[in-house]
Amino acid sequence: MEKPLWRPDRNSQIPLHLQITEYLRDKIAGGEWTVGTRLPSQRSLAESFGVNRSTVVAALGELAAAGMIEGGRGGGTKVVNHTWGVLASTPPPDWNAYVSAGIHYPNLPAVQEINRSEFHPGLLRLGTGELSPELLPREEMSRLLRRMADHVPDLGYGEPNGDLFLRELLASRMNSQGIKASPECILIVSGALQALQLISVGLLQRGSTVLLERPSYLYSVPVFQSAGMKLQGVPMDEDGLRPELVAPYAKQYGGALLYTIPTFHNPTGIVMSQQRRNRLLEVCQKAGLPILEDDVYRDLWLDEPPPAPLKAGDSSGVVLYMSSLSKTLSPGLRIGWITGPQPVIERLADIKMQSDYGSSAFSQRLAAECLSSGMYEAHMESLRTKLGLRRQAALDSLQRHFGEGLAEWSIPNGGFYIWLKLNRTAAPRKLFDAALKQGILINPGHLYDPEAGNRIRISYAYASLDELESGLARLAEIVASL
Amino acid sequence: MEKPLWRPDRNSQIPLHLQITEYLRDKIAGGEWTVGTRLPSQRSLAESFGVNRSTVVAALGELAAAGMIEGGRGGGTKVVNHTWGVLASTPPPDWNAYVSAGIHYPNLPAVQEINRSEFHPGLLRLGTGELSPELLPREEMSRLLRRMADHVPDLGYGEPNGDLFLRELLASRMNSQGIKASPECILIVSGALQALQLISVGLLQRGSTVLLERPSYLYSVPVFQSAGMKLQGVPMDEDGLRPELVAPYAKQYGGALLYTIPTFHNPTGIVMSQQRRNRLLEVCQKAGLPILEDDVYRDLWLDEPPPAPLKAGDSSGVVLYMSSLSKTLSPGLRIGWITGPQPVIERLADIKMQSDYGSSAFSQRLAAECLSSGMYEAHMESLRTKLGLRRQAALDSLQRHFGEGLAEWSIPNGGFYIWLKLNRTAAPRKLFDAALKQGILINPGHLYDPEAGNRIRISYAYASLDELESGLARLAEIVASL
Ligand SMILES: Cc1ncc(COP(=O)(O)O)c(C=O)c1O
Ligand SMILES: Cc1ncc(COP(=O)(O)O)c(C=O)c1O
């Protein structure tokens, strides 16, 4: 459980432990901590309140005396009664049963921990899949916000497919990449992740199988599994997914869809060659197997532009294509899009209307301003230079600290990631915990492939150059010591 | 299928019908209209292209000659081949099968039609559940956007629970309504609808039953049904839901959750009395039946503030409370929130992270600016006056046109709606179509209660005063004529 954000007032006349008693009593009596809730440990409460442990012990004593909490034999303390001094005659619903009853899978514990830890200041994040704050175009955004003030978007509910102006801009962007997409065949979504979510509940039957690269980003989000689908990994090599395996795998596992990140793959950084792309399209067309192309890293090339999207070579509508502005411009904007056959897009738009009535009008308008003002292109130019330097620094640090046989890696041509392969194996959980203890947050390989226990996803996009150097140095020590 | 947005260029040297041929060919060859797709009718194509029907016929003739489309015996025209002049050797995946295979229910056809029709300019919308553009605070938003330009929010991925500053503001707002909610027990969502979506997949088992008022807004969105739950209506009277029926219904139908809109209920406008609230809480506490309180209309009182939320009287954590800024400030902002027991909120936050990685940082910051600057309160003051006038105008028009025994209604004390009861019955679909033909979009009662065929939801929030008068006049004629 997250620790409370409140702290007692040191200037108050009321003793600290009584302030804490009152605060906790309110939390219980107000129903935030229902009967059955397990309290955070005394140590962590003391830490979050900024007091001595003995003060917490005194406060908990008051609550225990009043019959509200009880120390369990197992060590933990639980809420047993929500009223002060009176035995509750009617217990509340058993929320814990509800929490575990839903049909949606929880995130992997490691992913939950990463999601939370990312907001603990001071942590050194070596694997985070987003741009460092210093790489985000704050000043340009500020300029565009001022411009938007003169063109406030429509404040009402929006069209099912999203802001038309934004869709037109995206259509012409995609056109320049070889993709023919009309605005009515584009759906604006709240990030690429939402596109996956909509597809998982909108197009596939429960029990069907999604083929995907192994490893893949998709292993780290249980979006398809929660909708009752299975994932089946298909091996890759240095040119990407192996197309000759797709038909046999589809046959053997009954694949209903192939999810692929052909360009600057997450987590390996691999770019699928043009030949492979042609072959993959052929194979899928022949097998009648739809492709979902996730292209969120395309614009992040560092050496040369990547081959055209699969969708550009698709003349029969076998490819659904999705991308977003999260990796290049701003994840907080939550703007992505998907294009494909019109009936598919209309189906997904209908479900989107049922899920959240469309994406933020402000985000959509701001995204449109970024694209139409030329800001996006200018930003990408300068971003590529900076990311290139970061990549070099990360490779140098890796060479310095992991070069002597501790690990192996390839050099990515774009995107954010280096898929580090450790030459020794350590239990992934152990490595994660040991690093976290030293203030380093890593993204262990098993998040992206259950069997990649000896891999770590390194990102050169997030940590500062200094942090990359010191973090990788410390990480190498930890690896060597385990 | 939505009609194309493109129009041929009348100044071009290329004949119109050839431009159209080329446009449609690209749509088919590019995979937007896959093999099997049914084309819009000739008439509707002619309309959307702004040409004579004969021009469309000529263009379709070219495509048919090239073997790309074929007129069916049933009248419709279908795509049969995606390449020009060559028989396709490999058909694409059968997307239509995918579109109908997903586990998510489509919106009711009438709701889909309403969603789409709302963006056809010129339609007179008598039932729309949102503020008219003229009631939305565009200028104030423009001012706040300018302010935001000096405080650009964090552009990165956000915290699982949402922007902390916004959560603190909401906590203190709710506090003033009698609800004790700490920021760590609040989850920011993309509108109240998303809260429903998260709850449907996060807390309830497939096959369980949600109790709700009959009629209810919830009947118009298949969010719970798509997650495999059933809805069971509980009768209301003029004081709201009848609490004495809750326990027996819960027992008989195995209710797992009670969804209620106690304040300015959608679609009836009813406010649950204080006594009922106390009784309902008691009953649910006793039965261990969690309540989901949807309070999106609370601030829209016109005569006097409504009783405190159910959540304010909840000392054992039986109530999950949700609200949003859509009905008062801006639906396009897509900002809502939910509060309740901490483990429940953390579970929902986890699923939210899996669905879209959090709501737009810009919308969240703008919402916070609205609340913290005092703009929200000032806007509500003036909004109440304007809505009060609109309510009066709508009641006057109703009296004029439906007063002579054509319909009955009650006077709402706030919110948007009048739940009109027709004294004659007409097939709802017939009424909807007849009204649409005359350019009037209505929200028929059966959207909110499958058996309320003789009801219409009238909203005094959307249409202009003139439109309300002329629309209701015409509607009365249509009703009388059926
Ligand atoms: C391959 C891939 N797809 C989708 C996403 C999600 O992106 P968004 O922020 O647009 O939802 C990510 C982010 O990690 C990603 O790596
Ligand atoms: C009772 C009720 N709840 C929720 C919603 C959805 O609101 P939001 O725009 O915040 O998703 C509506 C809108 O029609 C409503 O009437």
Give an overview in words.
The structure is a homodimer of 482-residue chains. With 482 residues, chain A is an alpha/beta fold. Chain A folds into 3 domains: 16-102, Orthogonal Bundle (Arc Repressor Mutant, subunit A), CATH 1.10.10.10; 110-129 and 378-481, Alpha-Beta Complex (Aspartate Aminotransferase, domain 1), CATH 3.90.1150; 152-373, Aspartate Aminotransferase, domain 2, CATH 3.40.640.10. The first copy, chain A, is 40% helix and 13% strand. Chain A has helices spanning 16-29, 42-49, 53-65, 95-101, 109-117, 138-149, 164-176, 192-202, 223-226, 246-253, 274-287, 342-356, 361-372, 375-402, 428-437, 465-481, and strands at 69-71, 77-79, 124-125, 186-189, 209-214, 230-237, 240-241, 255-260, 291-294, 319-324, 336-339, 407-408, 417-422, 440-441, 443-444, 455-459. In chain A, the strands form 4 sheets. An 8-stranded mixed beta sheet of chain A has the order 4-11-10-9-8-5-6-7, with helices on both faces. In chain A, α1 (16-29) packs across α3 and α8 packs across α12. Chain A is globular. In chain A, 55% of the residues are buried. Mean pLDDT of chain A is 91; it is low at 85-89. At the A-B interface, α1, α4, α5, α6 and α8 of A face α1, α4, α5, α6 and α8 of B. Chains A, B: In the C-terminal section; belongs to the class-I pyridoxal-phosphate-dependent aminotransferase family. Chains A, B: Its cofactor is pyridoxal 5'-phosphate.
